[in-house]
Amino acid sequence: MDPYDLSVLVGSQVRRINFDYRISLLLVDGAQLHERVNADLVIEAAIAFRDAEGTEHEVRPGVTASLAPMLGLLQCRVTAATFDGRELAVALDDGSRFSVFTGERYEAWDLQGFGVPNLIAGPWGLSDGAKATGGDDLARSGDPEAALPALDFPVYGLPPAFSGRRAMGLWDRMMGEQFVGVLLDHGDAEHGVLVTVGTIAKSSPLLRGSDDLGEGVRVTGFEAALSQALFGLLQLEMPPQGEERSAYLREKLPEMDQLALDLESPEWERSSVRVEGAEREAHVHRLGRSWAAAVDLDGRVGLALWGLGIEPSQLELVPIDELDAYPVPVVGEK
């Protein structure tokens, strides 16, 4: 089967919609025990959504205020589904439609289940969901230059003297504007010390809107770093895969979202992180044995950190010019 051919989804009905940091659509065609299709379409990237009335919406997984329009898809049937290598486009029988763009830096969506090709749409194209992800394929490709992004902002990490494995990951995320994050992973949790340093910078919008800066919420690099640091903290303290993991996210994500908006909360403590030889103020939140921290470098760039086994004040961050020292993609949010 051509992996770009998603026509098998035509006729399937949206039977369930789940929201956490992703949006999951259960697509089913057929009566129970005789189903032609029973599959989950899981979306992690921004969604351009046009509802049945023709109103355009920007839906951002994990951003609660943007999710409501997607509820209208419940019990609708798919009338068209296409993927051209960059954009997933789905139309439904109520006249609504949505599309998801597969960017250069993140895993945008995946399709898993019965009666469909099991696929992951990531920055390196489609891969069979039953096999390694595109990032792992890249790591084995023998072409390390293919993993090195062209960046127009500084990237920070720990000095080479910090021992343990090193890995790199990148993500794009819509938060009113688009942000690009370069996540550098240091150490190894199995040996008691793990630190992830994320350099979070503004990028061009994925969905272009009005140039009027007075419209909508404008988010700074520091605010985006706060949210990413808290999400990384949840990953460190999250229970193993399964229903407990989902329940944990449902409980903790709203709490972390609120905390990111309230820097005066007593749950934030003030500390410092040394960046390029200078002490910079850090906001630190602790959960279990782990911590999250955020540093404001300027309006465009913020630093998100999370870790365990070492204190933020013990860290020395330096500019990282050679990203090929971090050969293995980080497994996590993209």
Task: Describe the protein in words.
With 334 residues, this protein is mainly beta. It folds into two domains: 7-136, no CATH class; 142-329, no CATH class. It is built from three helices and 21 strands.
**Radius of gyration, whole Å:** 20 Å
What percent of the residues sit in helical stretches (DSSP H or I)? 10-25%
Number of separate domains: 2
> Which stretches are poorly predicted, pLDDT < 50 over at least 5 residues?
130-148, 204-217, 330-334
How many angstroms does the end-to-end distance come to?
27 Å
Largest sheet: 10 strands, mixed
Order of helical and strand elements: EEEEEEEEEEEHEEEEHHEEEEEE
General shape: elongated
How much of the sequence lies in strands comes to 35-45%
Side by side, the strands of the main sheet go 12-20-16-17-18-19-15-14-13-21
Mean pLDDT: 79
Alpha-beta classification = mainly beta
Give the topology, please:
Elements: E1 13-19, E2 23-29, E3 37-43, E4 47-50, E5 56-59, E6 78-83, E7 87-92, E8 97-101, E9 109-114, E10 119-122, E11 125-128, H1 134-140, E12 156-157, E13 166-174, E14 178-188, E15 193-202, H2 221-237, H3 243-261, E16 269-275, E17 278-287, E18 290-296, E19 301-308, E20 316-319, E21 328-329
Parallel strand pairs: 13-21, 16-20
Antiparallel strand pairs: 1-2, 2-3, 3-9, 4-5, 4-8, 6-7, 7-8, 9-10, 10-11, 12-20, 13-14, 14-15, 15-19, 16-17, 17-18, 18-19
Helix pairs in contact: 2-3
